[in-house]
Write a structure and sequence with these properties.
Largest sheet: 6 strands, parallel
Number of domains: 2
Oligomer: single chain
CATH class of the largest domain: Alpha Beta
CATH architecture of the largest domain: Alpha-Beta Complex
Mean pLDDT: 88
Strand order of the largest sheet: 12-11-10-13-14-15
Radius of gyration: 21 Å
Structural class: alpha/beta
CATH superfamily of the largest domain: Spore Coat Polysaccharide Biosynthesis Protein SpsA, Chain A
């Protein structure tokens, strides 16, 4: 419904064209054989202002219930001969047709049930879904997307590295839109030497909880590193350094490393796996209990040992009844400080 935007974001003008128009042109230039446009809120306004020729338009009358209903309606409209569906957002103007083609080619080559693009290790959109998983998605409801079935298909998910920052650039707010117009896809890592002897706090994410963790980490005299594909220390002054690739093996050497994953689901699995590979002393997953269990089950399915999983707290934080982002960050930071003091004492 574009409630955070304040107006239909599909119609926002980017370089003189509506976002939805740009996305449709990208699809038309790709190997996609059929385009289904799912409309919900502002459907009639969008129809009047956007040329939807050569597409199949369906209206989701249950859009107020969340994205799961739009996904369900869209998949139901796909032709019977389609072998797979590419789920693309209507607010990704930088996505390249070649990236879509690469996902299609990889699906045809590997026959994976789910194909996900990665940019610098960060998972993005669109996601390609084999027809064999359509039935599972047909029963989705509420504000739930494709990710709801990922945990059940760990062995059949193919992650494809692409050189296309557009898979990460979508728009939810006016700030997103303004930042998008100056998007940086060539950010350079700055991991020069940090203050010696300090514990290291690594934060994956950029929203409210992550921002609060950065502030608390600095206040507690940790060396603070943000992991984000685009932001810089100029924009996030509470971070001492920024790692623009989700590859924690590139972190500076430190006696104690604590990782907090607060990406609101976007990069959870990849970030936790990276933290385990880096042998972090503590890994916090900021998520609800259900999401935490999904991540742990997926890791066990991949063969992660119980000893390695001992470093993971999912959900993370000391029980203080936290509700607001700042309170959640405080509960996590308190647990990190507790772990640091315990580990330092026993070292």
């Amino acid at each position: 419904m574009s409630t955070r935007m304040g107006s239909p974001k599909q119609l926002l003008q980017f370089h003189g064209r509506a976002l939805l128009e740009i996305c449709l042109e990208t699809l038309r230039k790709s190997r996609v054989e059929e385009i289904v446009v799912v409309l919900g809120a502002s459907a009639e306004i969008i129809r009047q202002q956007i040329t939807l020729d050569e597409t199949k338009v369906v209206v989701n009358n249950f859009y107020r219930e969340g994205m799961g209903t739009s996904l369900r309606v869209g998949l139901a409209a796909i032709g019977p001969n389609a072998r797979a569906a590419l789920v693309m957002l209507a607010d990704q103007p930088f996505l390249r047709p070649s990236t879509i083609n690469e996902l299609i080619e990889q699906h045809q080559k590997n026959q994976s049930q789910i194909v996900i693009p990665l940019y610098r290790g960060f998972r993005g959109n669109p996601v390609l879904l084999d027809r064999s998983v359509f039935a599972e998605l047909a029963v989705l409801s509420g504000d739930i997307g494709c990710r709801a079935i990922f945990g059940d298909h760990t062995e059949n998910i193919l992650k494809v590295a692409v050189d296309d920052a557009g898979i990460l650039l979508d728009i939810d707010t006016r700030t997103d839109f303004e930042n998008l117009q100056e998007a940086r896809s060539e950010a350079v890592d700055d991991l020069t030497e940090l203050a010696a002897g300090r514990p290291q706090l690594v934060v994956v994410g950029q929203e409210a909880v992550a921002q609060a963790l950065l502030k608390l980490g600095r206040l507690m005299h940790f060396n603070v590193i943000l992991v984000d594909p685009f932001l810089t220390t100029r924009e996030v002054p509470d971070a001492d350094r920024v790692l623009h690739t989700l590859d924690l093996s590139r972190l500076p050497t430190a006696a104690w490393t604590y990782v907090a994953v607060a990406s609101r689901g976007r990069f959870d699995e990849e970030a936790v796996e990276q933290a385990l590979l880096a042998k972090a002393d503590y890994i916090a997953l900021v998520a609800n209990k259900k999401r935490g269990l999904e991540i742990i089950a997926g890791l066990k399915q991949k063969g992660t040992s119980p000893e390695s999983l001992a470093a993971l707290r999912a959900p993370a934080g000391i029980a203080i009844g936290a509700v607001d982002p700042e309170e959640i960050a405080l509960s996590v930071m308190a647990e990190i400080v507790s772990e640091y003091r315990r580990q330092r004492h026993t070292a």
